[in-house]
Amino acid sequence: MAGKGPFGNPVPVSDLATEILDPVLRRRAGISVGLVQSWEEIVGPRLAAKTRPEKIQWPRRLHEDDPFEPATLVVACEGIAALHLQHESGEVIGRVNAFLGFTAIGRLRIVQKPITDTSLQPKPRPRQLTEGERARLRATVGNIEDEGLRASLERLGATVIGTKHRKT
Questions:
Q1: N or C: at which end does the chain have fewer Cβ atoms within 10 angstroms?
Q2: Which helix (H) or strand (E) holds 96?
Q3: pLDDT of 79
């Protein structure tokens, strides 16, 4: 996608997705993409692995003249992380407010839910290649003169072939 400048500079897809998702998240959950993306920096890696911000609940204002009241941040937690988050709630509220730039959050509400973190799940290991598969791979990359490139392509080929199911 071309940028807004006169030369059509490329724009990262994440920037485009943020422009689309941020208004939707603000309207639905009262939360911004920036808060979700920066959650690990705000609460630290230990809590971020077992928690995630769900939404911000703003108190209803009956009149425009009503004074500002801080919101409640709803955080989903897993197991013992709820106890850790409750213990550190004052610090988390302070960090979230510092991130947002004003006293937006007055309290936390903890909801226990399973949090799936795919980054912690072990990646599947490719299977060992048969001798025939290794020979075919060596023959395919054998004409490449650069040894580093040939070795890299051989490793890539072994991974690709090793992740495919063997024909029986």
A1: C
A2: helix 89-100
A3: 84
Rg (CA), the chain: 25
Helices 147-163 and 131-141: crossing angle in degrees, nearest 10, is 140
Phi, psi of 66 (to 5 degrees): -60, 145
d(CA 107, CA 94): 10
Residues in the chain: 168
Q: Between residues 97 and 2, which one has the greater pLDDT?
A: 97
Tokens (6 digits) for 72: 């409640």
Q: Which residues make beta-bridge pairs with 155?
A: none
Torsion of CA 100, 101, 105, 111, to 10 degrees: 20
Q: How many C-beta atoms surround the C-beta of residue 87 within 10 A? A: 10
- pTM of the full structure: 0.53
pLDDT at 29: 44
Q: Are 77 and 51 in contact (CB under 8 A)?
A: yes
Cite the beta strand spans of the chain per DSSP E. 51-57, 71-77, 105-112
Q: How would you list the strands of the sheet with 105-112, edge to edge?
A: 51-57, 71-77, 105-112
